Amino acid sequence: MTTIYILWLRQIKRYFRSRSRIIGSLGQPLLFLVALGFGFGPIYQKAGGGNYIQFLAPGIISMSILFTAVFSGIEVIWDRQFGFLKETLVAPVSRFEIMIGRTLGGATVATIQGFIVFLISFFVGFRINNPLSLITAFIFMFLIALLFTALGTAIASILSDMQGFQLIVNFLIMPLFFLSGALFPLAGLPKIIGVVASLNPLSYGIDGLRGAFSNSAHFGILPDFLILSSIVFILIGIGSYLFSKIQI
Amino acid sequence: MDNIIEVKNIVKKFDKFLAVDDISFNVKKGEIFAFLGPNGAGKTTTIKMLTTLLRPTSGEMIINGYNPVKDQYNARCSFGIVFQDPSLDDELTAEENMYFHGVLYKVPGKILKTRIEQMLNFVELQERKNELVKNFSGGMKRRLEIARGLLHHPKILFLDEPTLGLDPQTRNHIWDYIKNLNKTENITVFFTTHYMEEADKIANTVAIIDQGKIVAQDTPQELKKQTQKNSLEEAFLFFTGKKIREEVANSMDNLRMRRRVWHR
Question: What CATH number did the domain enclosing B135 receive?
């Protein structure tokens, strides 16, 4: 337990110490909210979709969680290259604990990041119906964060350096984000896009978040929750397995 | 005297490359043991196997009575290690790095606090304990790593080129600590270095490894006598030849640059 705690604490400390990174990583979500929110707002309204910001904000919150989470997971590569990973791997603790501690830490950081974007979205006009919905929203935010931190850790356990990093961003993170229903409603899509989106775990996270904030879930909150948490378990399993196989 | 490290017929193969080729040696309890060899000879690989980071392809090892392959937990509790390249968290302070280590090694909370203070005093970093490690010089980092490696009172201290890239002042400083520690706490020290005069001055026993095989093992005096050379360096060259070894390139430098870009 203490192992998990100290690894969690390390991630949190590192996060709060890199203020420039926190602020830097808020630029993109803010831009998306403003440019897309106000840009597509009128068309969305005309098409009968209602307030686009209301629709978009959960997607952008999830986007910032996705990015922060995957990067936190991928930080294993830095730790490996810069030696700190060795320090944890020669310690008399199990690799499973190390992986869980890191993942919880990364997920907490990503959730905080998501919450900051949530606060920002208020300035752009996002509103929630019921303050209690925040609890459900938090659960979904944390699940998304866990899922993608575990995914990042799994990927980082296979890669030995950052050469493949650009590849991951362009062929994994970007598609995950754009094909998830973060920016557009999942109803009435062309078949292929619809199928792809329903295979994308992020879709369920965003959908659940949307359901929590404004009762407008496409799949339904409960299915979202069940699917998302199952994938979280699977990915933590895969991540721990791959992490335990790291040789230095 | 008992052997605290016993290595018997250890082999490590990476794909087709034979990094360690059937080596055997013993390290006595309480001695300072120098493990020398040119680049790529298999020094670091051997240390990694002894410290549970790598599994040997075949062979037997015992450290402090435990098998690092089968009894990882007890083996890991037995040693402290200072790696070839820094393994501190730059974004944490000196004290936090120590605390992190103490928690991982399950040093009880009350003892941990006093011990961190003790160790930081020992390496003269107590005054800077609240500074982030990234602001430390190479020598300070090394000292902190040594302090950290000793925090859980290990029986064996592994040092993989602990004085690489340090100025003579810092080097002397560090070796004084280590010799002192070896004397007062009876800690067995296992180290590698490229500075032959260090090994000559400090080690009780020297083993020379080349191309994965141990080519000589004895006291520094005996090795010099055997080869009829004046210095350990000449004796070393006698055993390993003068050909320059090629080191496997890594993407480290490239990465350092990118990290800077990314972390801004």
Answer: 3.40.50.300
